[in-house]
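Appendix B. Raw example, untouched.
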Amino acid sequence: MSDDPRTGSILVIPVLGIPEVREGDDLAALVADHATDVRDGDVLVVSSKIVSKSEGRVVAGDDRFAAIRSETVRVVAERGPTQIVQTRHGFVMAAAGVDASNVEPGRLLLLPLDSDESARRLRRGVTERLGVRVGVVVTDTFGRPWRLGQTDLAIGAAGVRVVEEHRGRVDAYGNELVVTAPAHADEIAGAAELVKGKSAQVPVAVVRGLAALVTDEDGPGVRALVRSAEDDMFRLGAREARREALRLPVATEPLADVAVDADQVRRALSGLADTTAEPAGMTAEPGTPGRWGAVEVTEARVLKPILDALGLPSSVPVLVIVHVRADGEAGRTDVLLGAGGLRERLVRSCVVEGLACQWVPAEAAGEAVRHVLPAGAEPVGALAIGTGRNAAQNPAENGARKAAERAAQNAR
C-alpha cells in the first residue's frame, strides 16, 4: 500500500521505540518524539496500559480480586474465578480491566480514571508539539458475549466521531436503514491492534485515511458508546438474571381495560408449555390425574362471558384457571400446595414479562368457570392477565416492570 492511501483505503502504522512508561512521564511528548510522520487527519491509537502507567494507575499487591472489587460498580456475571463487571466508566468487561500483564511482578494495572479526559489531554499535547489536527483513541482489550476471543475496543476518544447514526438513510437498494450505527472508535481500535499486538510492546499506532472522522472539537468521547441501563437487554448474566427474577415481588393487582402485547402473554404462559388441546380455545395442563392443573381460556366466545361474570376488563386476553383434582382428604394439602406453586409461578412470569395479573379466588370464580374445567376438577381460582391500573396511570414510573423485562431477556 502506498504511503498516501487513496480514498476508501486506510494505512495502519506502528509507532516503534517508545520506552517503558513510568508514572509522571509526559505521554504526549513520548508519542510526538516517536511518531515522526503524523499528519493532519491521522488518528493516534494508544494502549490504555501506557496511559495508566503515566497516570500512576499501578498498584502494588497480589490480591487481584480486591483490586477488581475496588474498580467495580456492579457485578454482571461470575463463573468460578471469572467475573464480568461494570466499571466506574460504564464499561462491561472481564475483571474490571485490572491487568497483571506488561507490568512488573507483584504490581497490578488499573484503567485510567477518566479515559476520555486522558485522550483529550494527549490530543492537546500532541497538537501543541506537532502542529497537526489529529484524533486520539485510547484502547483496551475486551471479550465479546457472543463470540470467542478478544479484541481491542475504544475506552477513550477525543477529536474522533466515535459513532455515526445511519437511521433514516437508505442503502444501495433503497431500503431504509433502521438500526445501523457504526461504532467507528471501536473499528479504529481493532484495526490498530493488528499492528500493535499483545506482546510486541508497540503501544501506539497511527491510522491514516480516516480524516473524515477527525473532528475539530474533542467531542463526547467513548461515553457516547456506553449503552444506558434502560436500553441494555443483557444487563445481567443468565444465572444472575434468574436470581434477580426470584427476588421480584409476587403480587396481583386490579387490571385496567388496556390492550396488551400478545407476545408478552405468550411468553408469560410458557410455563404451561406442556399442554394438550381441548375444545373451545382451551388448553389444559393435565398433570397427574387426581392432582392439580390449569386451564387457559383464550377464545373470545368462551372468554368474554366469564370476564363479564367476574367483572374483569374485556381487554383481558387470557384467563388461567387453576384447579385441583384430589381424591379424598389425605393428599389434599399437597395438591393445594402444588396448585399454589403453579399460581406463584404464573404471577412471577407475568411480572418478568412486564404484565400484571389479577387473582380471582375460588369463592368468586367458582360457578363462572366450572363449566370449562375437566370432569371432577375443582377451581382454586382464576388468574386474569393484562395491564395493571398503576402501570396504565403512571407508565413513566414503572421502573420495576422495565427491570423485570430486562431480567427476562437475560434469562432466555
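End of appendix B.
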